[in-house]
Every structure is written in structure tokens, then in C-alpha cells.
Amino acid sequence: MEIFIGNVSYGLQEKQLRRALQGPLSTFGIRAFHIQIIKKKNIAFLTVPTLEQGQQFLEYYGASNVNARRQKKQIQVMNQYLRMNQSNKRPADCDKALLRSLELQQQQRDAQQRTASIQTKKKRSFSISGFEVGRWSLEEIAPAHVFLSCYTKRAAGKVHIGKHQTGMTIRFNRPEVDDEVKIRIGYASIMSIIIGHQHTQSTVSVTMRHAPKFYHRRSSPFDLAPLFAALGLREDPMIRVSDLDPDHMVTAPVCFVYRFVLSEPEDLEVVESLAGSNGVPAMTRLQTISRDHRSLYRISYDNLLRDISTLNQHFRIAYQLTALLANGVLHPQTIADLIPTVKEMNRTYGANQLAFALRGLRDELCEMSPDPTYQNEPLTIATLLRQLHTIVGRRCDPSRLNRSDAERTNNGELACIHSAYITPAGRNLEGPRLEDANRVLRRYAGYHDYFLRRDTSLRPIYQRFKDYLSSSNGQSITIGLRQRTVWQTNAKTIIEELGDFSGIRNPGKYAARIGQAFSNTTASIEIPVEAEWLIPDVTTVERVMDPKTRTWRELARVFSDGCGTISMQMVERIWKMSCKGVISLDSTLEGECINLRKSMVKFTVQKVEEMRTLEICSTTSRPLPMFLNRPLIKILEDLGVPDRAFLDRLQEALAEIRGTATDPSAAARFLRKSGGGVKDLGMNFMDDEFLRQAYELVVVTVVRDIKYRARIEIPDGYTLMGVMDETGFLEPEQVFIKTHTGVLVGRVVITRAPAMHPGDVQFVEAVNVPRRSPLHDLRNCVVFSQRGTRDMPSKLSGGDLDGDLYNVIMDSAFFPIEALDLQRPVTVEDMADFFIDFMQNDMLGLISSRHLVAADLAPEGTLAPQCLELSEAAAIAVDFPKTGLPRPSEARPDFMSPMPLVAVGKGGSGRERIRLESVKLERDDNDDDAEDLWTFAYYESNKILGKLYRAVNEEDILHDLQSSNLADERRDDHLLLKIYRYGCEQWSQFYPGTDSEANIQEARELQEAYDDAVLDLATTFAFSHQYILRELEVFCCIISGKGKASKRQRDLSEGLRERFHELYQWVTEQMGGESGGTAAFQKSLACLESTLSPDNNSGRTSKGRSFGWIAAAVLLSEIAALTNIR
After folding, report:
1. At what angle do helices 1106-1125 and 1078-1092 cross, to 10 degrees?
2. Is it the case that residue 670 has pLDDT exceeding 70?
3. What percent of the chain has pLDDT over 70?
4. Which of 234, 318, 339, 930 has the fewest CB atoms lying closer than 10 Å?
């Protein structure tokens, strides 16, 4: 029931009204309710779970009238009495999702009230007299760790230690500028919290991986709030800023230790009592002292920038030294002390080798996480120089293997690129990292230092990023929208060489066309001018009804949009060049030729004779598996697919996962299928702690995807690239599909992601073609007809044939019963404005979420008018829809709950185990600082997505797997030791009387090269420079992260998988795994021995575990091959 509340005081906050109503509502057993304040009208709406509860409440607190038999009770808030009546909204018109969520919350809180004991509420807000920002001294750790204060703020304020995702919040006033400031520190970003006393002061020192968030509320002599209300605008109370003041601007990007001084020293014990509960991190008591370092820090900062400027002729070295500063790794004075030795080393080793060594030093320092709770030994200049000499020595030794050098000899398909990650407080400098090459980078192979990739964190400070885009003295940019990436370079010359873009007046299209040249590709062969032909598109005209004007209009349809052909002879040339992928093959073409269509030509090239390389973006060498997803399941449900079909397939998938717990071979196949680096060794690898953790991490990741994304594999389904039938044989609604299993024949369902409209799922007939048809030469793709009034791809979420992937389902159980024109040439500023506008208005994710909620609530599902409106909005999301979207519900279905976090921690046996950390969903109404942290309410969905969600209990599955796979209490590497002994025994049988000793030093060098590459991947694909991936994550190609799983996280995991597989192939080749024979046997045995040697650390900070298992796989493979020969 919804209750209208009038006479609301101007400026009343939701939390204040909630507290005023909490007591009266609880009198009637109402413990779950929702409040919405309409500030511009000074009214509010209260929603309670049931009509009966609302009527009982109004009986006592409703507005009085002349017919009332007694005076009603009144509630006073901010000196005004609230007037409450039942709203004009009928109960049937209330937000159903919100009501169901409140009913669920009411049941949960009633149960808590019955079973929970009354607990004393702990104090969570503490007065502070000021705070300092700085860093820990790496050299001075005894008798106490020294905090170097680089910024000091003496102002009264409060620090609030919130629960769960609220984190820590610091508030104080700045009288000199008449505003209020807030600092928010998320718990996931905290490395350590150190508490203690210095003299008579009690201090709390928080060390973070990156800068916190800063906000301010500026006061004004004019009260603008009534004006905002009159205009119908929302006044944002707190504004996100980059720093607190000009002095803080220098330290904010690079100093991540915030030290708070408590006003009441006795509060320290209360602060300590909060640790370890409700999401608050652990705290450590340590003796620390603070030293005023403000003037020295600013002087050393300016001096360092001046010293680095003297190295401008050695860009790579200057870049790495700047990265040590910009990323907050070392103090400016420490970096300055390194420069004289760096200059000497430059003369000895050269700028290139030294720059990579400096990058390696930065990676190792990040891995060490210099912090008083981790650091036991002082990190002096001498120690840093020894580390640097060791790293550069390994790189420059010609007798040692080096993975990075090996990667740079791959015919230019990889490029070393510097990158900058723009954050609200500053920027992090990364690289150079190896990235897939593209057309521009291959053309300028000797000038990669002139290119800088810039990424953004997409925080609300867009102007800061725009300043970067338009800077560098008019240097132009090239934009990659979906990746939120720009390339900073001298693009004016590059763009002129790429082609003629003068006719493009739309900034988005202009940026997209240039961005095509920066797409990751594989170069294949040079195409002669005489072999290239321009052929017409296959088009038709369809008459459609305009829903707005209700008139008929003609719409052009391009059946061949983005699709050309290539001859067999040209294909053979490509394959001989060891390149992957083909264009749509037309075996009727003679000689070497490639046919391009007008729809493929995006712009004209200035120097046609120079840019003739055919570059391949992707391949259809094998069909990809087909997975269900939440939008597709919702559409199939609405189209009549029974719930049992989805639930049965879910149980089959879960049973397959549970079955791997008792079958080592099945577990190994499961890991390989999921992209990990484990091979079937023919033995129970669960006895090894590292492999067991790898197995558990993969299982948890797959199960989380099933539960929270409904990512369920369909065995009788494929994901295929679409092409057009060049022969004209196929009729409308027919397709031709040929895979490694043969030609598919019969009725199939075809769709394309993202599917949101019911029309995005279509029935087609898969047919065979005559035996001599050229279509038989097309494999692992879906061939669409060129006949009819409308092409099938355009019906499937607006698809085309320029590389789109389509989902094909053969399982019958799932069968259902105008752009901106500037009127002038586009400038750099236009592209910068467009990029910022895109980031601010990229609405596709928001629309998809609203579509899921609306489809779950509406009886018609995705067929409901509101869902059809949202699906249309999704189709034009790139046009930045700012208005006209249906108002979102205040609640979400339970299947949209956030995923639990994955962590590695000590289990009951004292060994490290994979564990899940749940995310707190309920907002704390008593938390003063939680009002700006939106937490959705959730209700139990009665539709199939809710049933699938509740049918998966990831915690039970993980517990069952861990209970059935407890390792015995032996040394962690006992299984590797067993394999090594077995290898020695087999050597004596196959080669009796011969020595199995190989060059152990060479094996150790290979392991060091592998460990270097793993560390490089761990830092390259990390979320921040202060949090690098664990070896386990790299080995499994899964980025678990420190926060909620996101699309960026999944995209990074996919990139990590590709790079790790390249590394895996390289290291097995070095072991002789490809050629085999005696040398491979010896080398893999030596690599295994190197892993087991207790003294094999070579002065390195850590030694990986995965190298040993790669060596074991090669060794067992060689033994199996020799056994089969005999």
C-alpha cells in the first residue's frame, strides 16, 4: 500500500524521515518499508508491504477530518507535523516489484526478531582533530615504522567506520572556502589498517592500493535550492572532485596512506573492536611515528621532475622513472637517488634493456607491497640498486632465455606499447606491454614509443579526461568507444595516410572509421591491385509501417551488408602464410581474386599502392559453444518453452560439475575446457594444493556464471559467424550449416546477442544443398539466404554480415510453441566531446537491466509494451537516449543480486582454500554515510530466471567439492616429487646405462623466464598497479578481482587466456614438448627437478608453482609416447 505524506519540511533527508517513522511503524509490526521524497513539491510517499498494515497505521496516524470519532496521533519532523493519507494510486497500480521485495524483507526481519538476541549497538562514528596524507618510509622500520607526512589538514571532523560496502567515510568542514568535504575509502582498496599511539595522540593509519574518492558540498550566500526545485532539477548535494585543495593536488595521485588523529584517545579501543566484523578489515597495532615531510616532499617532487627532464632523449627510461612516481611506488627523493646509477647503467646496457629492467623493478615492488604489516627488512637505495642490477643482468645475459625477447621476434604481430590509465585523482603509467598489433602499429614498426594508449576509469569526472584528450599541443586522437580507449599520437599525419575522411561529418562515425585501423589484426598477404574487384551489394526494398505517423514507407535492405568473397587460390596463399581466417569463400572464382562490396568500403585510401595487406580479425576455424543467457531465457520462456527444459539442462550441468570431484580425468578435462593450463595426467591431482585451488577457482567461477548470469551451455547448439549465400540457392527462411560433424538438416532456432525483443529469436530451416554446390566449401559458419523482402540477420537484434556471431539451437526442448551532422569537417575537439558524451550516455547496460526487471514483472514478459519500448531503446542506444525511458522499479528480482566475491584464505586445516565472501545487500538505515550508496531491494522472482537462480547454491557446491577432495598432510609438492621419481625410473628402463642429467642451469633459466612472463601477465591484466593477480589466477586464466564481477573483468580474463596460452605453448616448445624424443625427456625432467630444488630462488622474491606442472605434463606425455612406441 502507498501512503501520501504532505507538509514535508524543505531539505528533509530520507534518512531523517525514515528514523521518524521507524518507531510508529514498528508498533504495527511494520519493519520493512520504502520512502520516496519529492523534494520539489515537499511531499513524500511511504510504501508498506500490505494494505491491511497501511490501513491500521493510518487509523492512528492518518490526517484527521470532521467525521473522525477521535483525534489522530501526529508525527512531527523538523518542527512540522506530517499529513498522511492513502495515496490516489490504487493498490493494483503500486510497484509490484517493490511490494514483493518489502514482503520478503518483512519475513526476514520477523524471523530475525524472533531468533536474534538483543545486541548492544557499537559506536561507529568518531571525532577527529585532523588527518595527514603521506607514505611509509621504506628505509626506517626500527625501532618504529616512520610515516612521512606530505599533506596535513587540521580541521575538526568525523570518521565513520561503516558496515560492508559503505567503507570508511571522513567528513570535515573547510571554513576558509565555506564548504564541506567528504572522503570515502572502500574496504576493498585497503591493504592494511594500523592503529597505535604517538605521544598522547591515538592514530588510525589506512594504507590503500589507490587514492580514495573525494567529494565536496560548496555553500553559497544564495539559496539556489528553490530555483532548482522550480525548474524541476535535482540538486546533487555532493560533487566528486579530484583533490581537496591545491596542496593536496600534488599528493592525492601518489600518496595512499591516510592517517587520522582521534579527538578522544580512548576511542582507539572502540575502533579496534570493530575490526573483523561486518566487512571491516583487520587492524594491526604497531609502533609508528609521524614526521613532517611536507616541504621536503614538494622540493624533492619538483627536483625529480627536473632531473627526469634531462633524460628526455631516452624516452623509455624517463617514462619508467616517471611511472615510479606517478603510480605511487617510490618516494620522489628515492627515485632521484637512483638516477645517477641509472645514467651509468644506461651507458653500459643501453636504454632499451634498462627501461625493461626498471619496469621489472616496478612490478616486483608492487608485488612486495611495501607496508609496515608486510615489510620486515628495510628497503634501502642499495637494495633497490641490487635488484635493478640483478634484473638487467638476467635480461642482458646472451646465454639466458628471455620470454619477452622471444615474443618480439614474431613477425611484428605483437608490439610493445606504453599506456596510461586516467583516474579521477591522477594517472597510472603502465608498460610497455606486449599487445596485438594493428595496421597502424605495423606501418610504424620502429616508432612505437610515439604511441600511448589511454584508458579511463569512467568515474564522474569527465572533464579531467577531456583535458587529456585535447592536450599535447594539438596532437590528435583516435578513439575506441567500446573499450573506453584512446590512442595519443601525432594522428594528423597518420589519418592523412590512412584515407580520406573529409566527407564524414558525424564525430562518432569519424572516430569509428579511424578506429578500424587500430583494431587488433593478423597480417597475412599483400593483395595485388589487379586481384581486387568491387561488386554490387544484394539489396531489396521492403514496405514497412511507421508506428509514429501510421504511414507506409519504403526501407532499403542490404542482404550482403559487410560480406565479400575470396577465391580458393587466394585462400591457399593465406593459409601458406600461417595466418588464420578467411573471407567468405567462393570456390567458383578463378585465379587470385577478392571481391569487395560497396557496403564494405568505409573510406577511400590515399596511397592505394602502399596499403595492400589483407588483415584478419577473427576466424571460423571451429564452431564455438552456445550458452544461454538471461535475456534469451526470458524470451524463450515468453515464447512457450517450458520451465522444465531449462531446469533439466541446469541439473545436467551441475551434475557434470559435481562429477568432476571424484573423477580426476573428468576434472582435468573440465579445467582444459574452461581454459586452464591443466592437462590430464592420469592421476588424482587433488592431492596437490596448487592444482586443487586451481580446480576450485574454476568450479566457483563456472557455477557463479551459471547462477548469476544464467550462462548454461546447450550441447546441441553452436555459435557461428554469418555469411551470405552467393549461389542464390537458399530460399527465404533457409540456412546452410556445415560443421566438423556434417551438415545440419531440420528446423533450428537462431538468435543473436543481445536478444531483447521476441522477434530476435527466429525459426529457420537448415537444409542441405546439392553435392557439387560451392556452399559445401563453407564450414563452421551459418549461410543466410539472399532472397525475400528482408534479410534474416537484420531481424536478429539488427545484425549484419560484417563479423557478427549467431547462436544456433538444435535441441527441440528449447523450441518455442537520423545521425548528427555538423555541416563542417570534424575536429579533434569534436571527437573529444563525442567520446565524453558517449561515456556519459552509454545506456545499453542500464536499458538491459531495466528490461530484465520489466519482463520479470509483466505477465506477458518480453511481449509487454514496456519491454518492447525498452528493446527499441536498446537498438538505438548508440544514439544516446537521455529521456523517454520507462521509470525503473525501486526493486529488482533476486536473480539480479550481486555475485559473492572470491578469495583465498586459510581453511580449517590451516591450508589455503578458495572461499566465497557474500556481498551485503541490505542498507543500514542507521548509517549516516550510506545515503549516497544505492542498494537495491530484491524480491523472489516466480519466473524461470528466479527458479534457475535459486536452484544453484554455489556455497554448498564448493563445500561438497572441498569435503570430497581433502589433501593429505604431506608437503605441498609431494605429487610432483612422485612424478619426478617415476620419471627417473622410466628413464632407467628406456635408456639403461645412460645419464638422465640435463643442464639444470638451463632449466632454471627457463623457469625464471617463465616466472618473469607470469609476473608480466599478472601486472598487465591487474585492475590496479597496487593489486597484481595471483599466479593461480594467471594459470587458470580467471581474474577473480577484489570487487563485483564486471564485463571489464571478463574481457580481461579473455585477453589473459589468449596470452597465457601463447606462453604455455612457448614454454612447452622450449622443453621440447613439440619435437619429443630423448632431449624432451631430459629437459622436462630437469625442469621438474629445478622446481623441486629448495635452493632454486636465485634471489627472486617468489617462485611459482605452475611451472612444475607444465614440466610434469610434458614429461608424462613423453613417457606415454615412448610406451606406445614399444
Report:
1. 150
2. yes
3. 71
4. 234
Kindly compute the dihedral angle of the four CA atoms of residues 493, 495, 497, 501, in this order, to the nearest 10 degrees: -140
Cβ-contact 705, 782 below 8 angstroms = no
- Res. 68 pLDDT band, cuts 50 70 90: very low
Q: What is the DSSP string of 52-93?
A: HHHHHHHHHHSPP-TT-SSPPP--EETTEE-EEEE-SS-GGG
Decide: 228 and 287 in contact? Cβ < 8 Å: no
CB 1103 within 8 A of CB 1012: no
How far apart, in whole angstroms, are the C-alpha atoms of residue 56 and residue 894?
Answer: 30
| Eight-state DSSP code of residue 623 | P
> With contact defined as beta carbons under 8 Å apart, do 790 and 542 qualify?
yes
Beta partners for 777? Answer: none
Give SS3 for 24. Answer: helix
Around 519, how many Cα atoms within 13 Å sit in the side-chain half-sphere? 16
Rounded CA gap, 22 and 109, in Å? 13
DSSP string, 520-579: --EEEEEPPGGGEEEE---EEEEEEEETTTTEEEEEEEETTTT--EE-HHHHHHHHHTT-
DSSP SS3 for 140:
coil
What's the confidence (pLDDT) of residue 1099? 43
Residue where the block lists cell 550441447: 715
What stretches of 912-1030 show up as alpha helix (H) in DSSP?
Answer: 944-950, 954-964, 974-990, 1000-1020
Read off the pLDDT of residues 641-657 as tens digits, 9 standing for 90 and up.
999 999 999 999 999 88
- CA torsion, points 418, 497, 518, 582, in degrees to nearest 10? -140
- Measured from the Cβ of residue 992, the count of other Cβ atoms closer than 10 Å reads 7
- Angle at CA of residue 415, ends 409 and 420, nearest 5°: 150
- The β-bridge relationship of strands 734-739 and 761-766 is parallel
3-state secondary structure of 1097: coil
What are the distances in angstroms from CA 625 to CA 23, 806, 809? 55, 11, 10
User: What percentage of residues in the chain have a pLDDT greater than 90?
Assistant: 14
* Predicted confidence (pLDDT) per residue in 83-105, tens digit: 888 898 888 888 888 888 888 88
Distance CA 294, CA 154 (A): 14
CB-CB contact of 737 with 766 (8 Å)? yes
CA–CA distance, 872 with 860 (Å, rounded to integer): 17
Which of 25, 143, 11 has its CA nearest to residue 77? 11
In contact, 283 and 195? CB cutoff 8 Å: yes
The one-letter amino acid code at 183 reads I
Helix then strand then coil, % of the chain, to nearest 5: 40, 20, 40
Report how far residue 463's alpha carbon sits from residue 469's, in angstroms, rounded to the nearest whole number: 10
Helix axes 381-396, 351-368, angle to 10 degrees: 130
CA torsion, points 1065, 1071, 1073, 1079, in degrees to nearest 10? 160
The pTM score is 0.71
| Each residue's pLDDT tens digit, 8-65 | 888 788 888 888 888 888 878 888 999 988 877 889 999 999 888 888 888 888 876 5
Strand order in the sheet with 584-585: 532-535, 594-597, 565-566, 584-585
432 preceded by a cis bond (ω within 30 of 0) = yes
| DSSP states along 351-405 | HHHHHHHHHHHHHHHHHH---TTT--S---HHHHHHHHHHHHHHHH-TTS--HHH
Angle at CA of residue 8, ends 15 and 10, nearest 5°: 85
Give the separation between CA 665 and CA 671, rounded to whole angstroms: 10
Q: Is the pLDDT of residue 969 over 60?
A: no
Distance CA 673, CA 741 (A): 19
Burial of 411: CB neighbours in 10 Å, binned 0-12, 13-18, 19+: exposed
